[in-house]
Amino acid sequence: MKMDKAKVDQFIKWLKEKWSNGQKCPICLHDDWFVGDKLFELKENEPEIPQTPSIMPVASVICKNCGHTVFFNALHIKLMDIPKQGGQNG
Q1: Rg (the chain; Cα; Å)
Q2: What stretch of H or E contains 16?
């Protein structure tokens, strides 16, 4: 799901507040990051119960040098509403 500009700005503001020390990439040690404008889903791999997987929406930050990607929980950052039971958002 693509985030609108207001949500991307909200994510950037959150990152500036929480992600301290000019975060260097743990892989290549560069500090040039790209803030993604899309939300993704991480789905639990539960082969015994395939019809009810647990899904976590995430926003991404990507190292511009090596591509290392860091995911942040979009619900925690309030980039989207917590879904209510029955599939409707509140």
Answers
A1: 15
A2: helix 5-18
Token pair in block for residue 63 = 């190292």
User: Domain residues of the chain, as ranges?
Assistant: 5-45+52-73
- What pLDDT is stored for residue 55 in this prediction? 85
pLDDT tens digit string along 27-42? 999 999 999 999 999 9
State which H helix or E strand residue 70 sits in.
strand 69-73
CB-CB neighbours of 9 under 10 Å: 12
Give the closest residue to 9 by CA, choosing from 63, 67, 90, 78.
78
* DSSP tag of 83: B
Cα angle 1-43-36, degrees, rounded to a multiple of 5: 35
Residue type, 21: N
List the structure tokens of 82: 């917590």
